Amino acid sequence: MGIVIGVAVAAFLTFGLKAAAATLSAQDLNQAGMSPQVLVNSLLGSGVTASNVTFTGSNCGGGLFSGGTGTIGFDTGVVLGSGSVQSGDTQCNGQKGIEGPNSADDNTGNNGTPGDTQLSQLAGQTANPPQASATTYDAAALEFDFVPSGSQLNFNYVFSSEEYNEFVNSEFNDVFGFFVNGQNCALVPGTTAPVTINSVNGGNPFGTSADNAQFYRNNDPNDPGPPAIDTEMDGLTTVFTCQATVNPGVTNHIKMAIADTGDSAYDSNVFIQGGTFSAPTTTTTVASTTTTTTVPSTTTTTTVPGTTTTTTVPSTTTTTTTADTTTVPSTTPLATTTTTVPSTTTTAAPGAGPGGTSSTTAPQATQSQGQSSASSPAPGQSITITGTGFAPNQPVTITATNPPTSLGTATSDPAGHVQAQVVVPVNAAPGPEQIVITGPAPGGGTHQVVVSFTIAATAPVATPAVAEPSFTG
Ligand SMILES: [Ca+2]
Ligand SMILES: [Ca+2]
Ligand SMILES: [Ca+2]
Ligand SMILES: [Ca+2]
User: How far does the centroid of ligand 3 lie from the alpha carbon of residue 184, in Å?
Assistant: First the structure.
């Protein structure tokens, strides 16, 4: 019996270690359940909704990846490439995809698809010497419309290529771009230069005349080698953030695209971090104010011979509280007026004192509206909800109302905001649903954020798998 238990514990530990040491793998668009919509769904974070998704290029050149924490710099997301993103897909002719180990200096997939005009112009800008345009091949482009809540769009990405290091500063200047309303936001930090082989590298020969080398991670098998990062790519950028000004509340457009330049060989890949495509509303909080006005009581005594009449007018206290207001459009400002209970009027002997009184204002139960990453999620779908107006760094509870279901807890940040990923109850009925975040208000009392949306009548496409990597290299 002791032996059986020992084996069970050992098996558990082994599983735990395997889960922690997940390796990079990709699932391309040829695989069951995959679609351009699935790719976009995996990217969306807070404050954005997406529609009109299209993908142009080979199904070999787009997919989801997972297990990237120790290699790419983040765990999951979308990968777009100028060859095969997934190793071992027999429908593709790429020697390998993004999976490690790095076994060649020249990994190539020839997808036989055209280049892209916008990317050709970008590649020309950073060509050596610069030119109006450079011919591109094997383009993969993911495009969609989106409506942001806020005016600042952000998402994280990493660029990588087989052109490193031997074709740095050559005509094989593979290129990618994230065109937000036509403007590329994939720029070398602090510059207006697009991110390409020629703008971020360790030099060619490696170590000589590097460009923006602080953002470059060398993984070349020979130069100097051996490669230390567990991906086929010979060089990668550090994690960059695309930042773009967008038009809140209306439809914007993005095109995420990558291509080979000069020929279709030596592929490049760009990784976009899942859940980071976001544009939350910026919140500016105006502190609450309380105004108290007290009119003192007055006492009038009239003496008629033989009788004394004392009339007391009670004091009155009026307290007006204006709650915190923010620029979140859905926030409902709270305005309360509290009037004290009048003091009793007494008739007494001359000299009776004033009957004034005052009262304190009880903490208010406040409520505002929050936001959901999806306007019509399906039962069982994971969504991100956000709200604000809580006391800083406090625990909050999250519940669904239809049917009443506890969805867990979260903690407010120092600004009183809460962002949490929750799963819509699998037994939620189609139709209106509310998720309520409840926690302490800044001035005491309770604050609730109500996130309203509609449960979809039919199940949407599957959310991106976070399954264990299937490729074992
Ligand atoms: Ca190479
Ligand atoms: Ca390689
Ligand atoms: Ca290629
Ligand atoms: Ca290439």
Answer: 22
d(CA 11, CA 18) in angstroms, rounded, equals 11
pLDDT at 120: 96
Closest CA to 257 of 186, 362, 325, 197: 186
pLDDT digits (tens, 9 = 90+) for 375-431: 888 888 888 888 899 899 899 888 888 778 888 889 898 888 988 888 888 788 888
Q: How confident is the model at residue 296 (pLDDT cuts 50, 70, 90)?
A: low
Return the pLDDT at 341: 35
Ligand 2 centroid – CA 70 distance (Å): 17
Q: Sort strands 446-455 and 366-369 into parallel, antiparallel or unpaired.
A: parallel
pLDDT of residue 137: 98
pLDDT, average across residues 331-350: 35
Coil, strand or helix at 287: coil
Tell me if 27 sits within 8 A of 64, measured CB to CB.
yes
Q: In what order do the strands lie in the sheet with 335-339?
A: 289-295, 316-322, 335-339
Average pLDDT of every residue of the chain: 82
Residue in the structure block whose two tokens are 């997939």: 109
Rounded to the nearest angstrom, the distance between the alpha carbon of 159 and the centre of ligand 4 is 13
Q: State how far the Cα of 449 lies from the Cα of 371, in Å rounded to an integer.
A: 9
391 burial via Cβ count (<10 Å: 0-12, 13-18, 19+):
middle
What is the spatial distance between Cα 324 and Cα 460, in angstroms, rounded to a whole number?
A: 38
Closest CA to 164 of 229, 112, 80, 120: 229
CA 134 to centroid of ligand 3, rounded, Å: 15
Cα torsion through 463, 467, 470, 472, rounded to 10: 140
List the structure tokens of 464: 């991106």
Backbone phi, psi, residue 201, to 5°: -165, 175
Report which of 356, 343, 334, 326 is spatially closest to residue 290, judged by C-alpha positions.
334
Considering only CA atoms, give the Rg of the chain.
31
List, in sequence order, every residue forming a beta bridge with 204; answer none if it has no partner. Answer: none
- Which residues have CB atoms below 5 A from the ion given as ligand 2? 102, 104, 107, 232, 234
